[in-house]
Amino acid sequence: MKQLLKLSPPEVGRHCLEGAPALLSAGVLAMLLSSCAGVQGPASAPVITIPPQPEEVVVAKPATRPIVTPAPLPIPPARPAPPANDTVLALLSDARVQADSGNLAAAAANLERAIRIEPRNAQLWNRLAHVRLKQKKYALAASLAAKSSTLAAGNRVLLSDNRAIIEQTRQGR
């Protein structure tokens, strides 16, 4: 008691409240025991139910990542790559001379031989498409121009020429 007199009023209130829950539960327990004093039967411990405490629900927010846009790929030069093989150069030159002179079958044969040597050369496929267009083989010319476009890899001049060939085949049919 002497200790309580030395404390300030807020400290006294706090000190007194520290023991309040224990004192309250002891009083409740005493009342329950006294009410059961006249009842005979097996002695059992009193059951005290504590109401459930509401659980705190934590909602996790999804992690956000910054959106990264890749840099555009560089566009290759617009000039067609010349054939690297001397045989292909000779066959291409012969095919041009033959096509200009009207010998379209021989020009097509030379271009087909050149394509067997360099099958990934878009320029050869394009030249053969021109020859087939002059022969009025429209479906074949369109197919050859489409193949050239798949191999052109950003060559705008060649892609534009292939589109023109395909458009002419549609008009010629």
In short:
This protein is mainly alpha-helical and 173 residues long. The protein contains eight helices and no strands. The mean pLDDT is 78.
Low-confidence stretches: none
Rg over alpha carbons: 48 Å
- Tell me about the biggest sheet? none
Distance between the termini: 115 Å
Protein architecture, described:
This protein has 173 residues and is mainly α. It has a domain at 86-172: Serine Threonine Protein Phosphatase 5, Tetratricopeptide repeat (Alpha Horseshoe). 60% of the residues lie in helices and 0% in strands. It is built from 8 helices and no strands. It has helices spanning 2-5, 9-18, 20-35, 86-101, 104-117, 122-134, 138-151, 156-172. Helix 5 runs antiparallel to helix 6 and helix 7 packs antiparallel against helix 8 (156-172). It is rod-shaped, with a radius of gyration of 48 Å. The mean pLDDT is 78.
Question: Which short descriptors sum up this protein?
Answer:
single chain; 60% helix
Please describe the topology of this protein.
Elements: H1 2-5, H2 9-18, H3 20-35, H4 86-101, H5 104-117, H6 122-134, H7 138-151, H8 156-172
Helix pairs in contact: 4-5, 5-6, 6-7, 6-8, 7-8
